[in-house]
Amino acid sequence: MRSAEPADARDEDLLVRVGAGDEHAFRELFGRYAAVAHALAFRSVRQAQLAEEIVQEAFLAVWRTPDRYDAARGSVRSWLMGTVHHRAVDAVRREQAQRRRAEQASGLGPGIVEDPVDDVLAAIDLPRERRLVRAALGELPEEQRDVIRRMYFDGLSQSQIAERTGLPLGTVKSRTLLAMRRLRAHLGEGPR
Amino acid sequence: MIRDHASIDELLAIRALDGLDEADAALLERELAAHGDCEECRRLEAQHAEVAGMLALALDPRPVREDMADRILAEAQAPGAAAATPDELAGRRSARVGRWQAAFGVAAAVALVLAFVLATRPDAGPPVPGSVIVPFQGAGPGEVALAYTPGEPGALVWATGLPDPGAGNVYELWMFEDGDPIRATCLAPIGGAVAASIDTDLSSAQLMAVTVETSECPSAPTTDPLYTAELDSVAQ
């Protein structure tokens, strides 16, 4: 089934149409978020082919099971990014387990030098959404930003972060919560 | 009835970032179940999910292949594909990678042997038709080289005569795309020699580099390259 929809259609409406088999709605949703999803997957897994597969599988799941989206749990965007992130983290941790089993002297490292926050000063020409989020990250105290970076962008679990930083697990948890609260306060309802 | 949401708030924040350990994930489920139909729980969950979802926007978008949407719709409509669940898809992906790695392992072993033969025959061609052998340049002792087939994922890297990287250290191979380093693999030589296959697609890489890193294999280089190879300059 196909139908036209305005370019500014709400994500939620597009998803309803996807549920009805509307390919145009799917393509519109894909066009809005595929590149961001790809960046997120690639940032975590660091392998181009694997990142593409993660994005493809995530959107395939969107097409097949759009009814998994629950508006009470957040926006379509957050659901979509959560789907991609969850798959990417799975892949990262699977790789870690394989490395351990192979007794390779490897594993995911401590923080990543590349950091979106490093680009805050250069963000003046960036789209508003990216500028806002980078500014919010830049406002965090370094120790909170580091936890967010390791957990979200590097795909480490709370205990892995505690192990690698030497921090008590409770400190990692509390810093995560404080960081999320600060981000929420800075971003408010955020770009939708 | 007033319930304490402090613990749930913390665990929901970590879950939104996919950072929960299994034990805490189970604890969260128990806490949520105990709260039952809890409006505050839903509010906190939605808030944290929203913030987590927005974090992805901090990254520079990475374009996908133009035909990806077509391929997704085609796969969705393929006969017998409707029953596939996300977990099944992940399993298929692992199986694909595993099969590929197994196949590549054989090819890599052959290429490795031929590559060492080639090392004594500088005028000979690459070991596999269409493949490219890229020698690394560096001031250090030893030799590093890479073999791959342009347009196809995967490569073989090998080295001989490498000095000991030091206790707790390994060599790490990087590919650079537009100046951004991307981890390819870590190399732990034995007696100065090492060979490894990687599944990375080198088609968009302009430069390869080897650094000495800690055995944790950091996600970005922390030392200067010892060996480098420019892929763009390879003329085959």
In total, the number of domains of chain B comes to 2
Uncertain residue segments of chain B: 96-110, 120-126
| Distinct helical segment count of chain B | 5
- Tell me which CATH architecture of the largest domain in chain A applies here: Orthogonal Bundle
CATH topology of the largest domain in chain A: Rna Polymerase Sigma Factor, Chain: A
Rg estimate of chain B, integer Å: 24 Å
CATH class of the largest domain in chain B, please? Answer: Mainly Beta
Q: Give the second-level CATH assignment, the architecture of the largest domain in chain B.
A: Sandwich
Give me some keywords for this one.
heterodimer; A: 192 residues; mainly alpha; Rna Polymerase Sigma Factor, Chain: A; Arc Repressor Mutant, subunit A; 2 domains; 0% strand; B: 236 residues; alpha+beta; Immunoglobulin-like; five-stranded antiparallel β-sheet; four-stranded antiparallel β-sheet; 5 helices; 9 strands
List the helices and strands and how they pair.
The complex is a heterodimer of chains A (192) and B (236).
Chain A: H1 11-19, H2 23-45, H3 48-64, H4 76-101, H5 128-139, H6 142-153, H7 158-165, H8 169-187
Chain B: H1 6-16, H2 22-35, H3 39-55, H4 68-77, H5 86-119, E1 132-135, E2 137-138, E3 143-148, E4 155-160, E5 169-177, E6 180-187, E7 194-198, E8 207-214, E9 227-230
Helix pairs in contact in B: 1-2, 1-3
Structure, briefly:
The complex is a heterodimer of chains A (192) and B (236). Chain A has helices at 11-19, 23-45, 48-64, 76-101, 128-139, 142-153, 158-165, 169-187.
